[in-house]
Design a protein that fits this description.
Elements: H1 7-17, E1 24-26, H2 27-34, E2 42-43, H3 44-53, H4 58-65, H5 75-82, E3 90-91, H6 92-102, H7 107-117, E4 124-125, H8 127-134, H9 144-154, H10 158-167, E5 174-175, H11 177-184, E6 191-193, H12 194-200
Antiparallel strand pairs: 1-6, 2-5, 3-4
Helix pairs in contact: 2-11, 5-8, 6-7
Length: 205
C-alpha cells in the first residue's frame, strides 16, 4: 500500500489553496496556504507544519498491515508487506521497494539500515529480524505507536529541509510567493494547474 495521497485527496488539498475556485492556484493563493503567521514569507517551521498535515494517514497504513485486526502487527503480518516475492524472507531490493513507497530515502541510508537489521548477516531479513526493528518494547508484537515511531525515523525531516533550502533561491531562510510559485508552476504561466500540483506535491512525501 502506498503512503502517497490518492488523486481525490490531492484534489481536496489543491481546492483548499484555490480560494477563488477558478481551477488554478496563483502564487498568492499558494503563499496564503503556507504563510501561517501572515508575515509575507514562509519559514521552515511553517513549511514543515503545512507539509506534515498532508503526509497521508499512518493509521490507515498500519491498519492495512494488521490483517487480523487485533490492533497489533506481528512478524507474519510484517513479512507479508515486505516479502514481495513470497519466499519467506526479505531481500534488500524488497526492503528498498517497500520503504521507498513511504519516503524518498537514499540507497546508502537504506543499505546501512538493512545491514544493521540483518543480524545473521546472510543478506536477507527473516521475520524475527524484521519484527525486531519495529517491536520497540520487545513484546513480540508491534503497536501503532511503535510503528509510527519507526516509520517516522525513516521519514526524518532532513530531506524536507533539503527541499526547503532548494526552493529558497536567495538563501534568506524563508520562501516568498515567487519562490513557491517557481517550484509548482511547471509550464511557467504564473499559475498552478491541478496537474502541476499533482506532479510536485508527492515529492514532499
Amino acid at each position: 500500500m502506498s503512503y502517497f495521497l490518492a488523486d481525490p485527496e490531492l484534489k481536496a488539498i489543491f481546492d483548499s489553496y484555490d480560494k477563488d475556485h477558478d481551477g488554478v492556484v496563483t502564487g498568492a493563493e499558494l503563499m496564503a496556504g503556507f504563510d501561517l503567521n501572515k508575515d509575507g514569507k514562509v519559514s521552515f517551521d511553517e513549511f514543515k507544519k503545512v507539509i506534515s498535515k498532508y503526509r497521508g494517514d499512518l493509521k490507515k497504513l498500519f491498519d492495512s498491515y494488521d490483517k487480523n485486526k487485533d490492533g497489533h502487527v506481528d512478524a507474519k503480518e510484517l513479512l507479508q508487506e515486505f516479502d514481495l516475492n513470497k519466499d519467506g524472507k526479505v531481500s534488500f531490493e524488497e526492503f528498498k521497494t517497500v520503504l521507498k513507497k513511504y519516503k524518498d530515502i537514499d540507497d546508502d541510508h537504506l543499505k546501512q539500515k538493512f545491514t544493521s537489521m540483518d543480524k545473521d548477516k546472510n543478506g536477507t531479513l527473516e521475520p524475527a529480524e524484521l519484527l525486531c526493528e519495529f517491536d520497540l518494547n520487545k513484546d513480540g508484537k508491534v503497536t501503532f505507536d511503535e510503528f509510527k515511531k519507526v516509520i517516522n525515523k525513516f521519514k526524518g525531516e532532513g530531506s524536507l529541509k533539503k527541499r526547503f533550502d532548494s526552493y529558497d533561491k536567495n538563501h534568506d531562510g524563508f520562501l516568498d510567493a515567487s519562490e513557491l510559485l517557481r517550484e509548482f508552476d511547471l509550464n511557467k504561466d504564473s499559475k498552478i494547474s491541478f496537474d502541476e500540483f499533482k506532479k510536485v506535491w508527492p515529492k514532499f512525501h
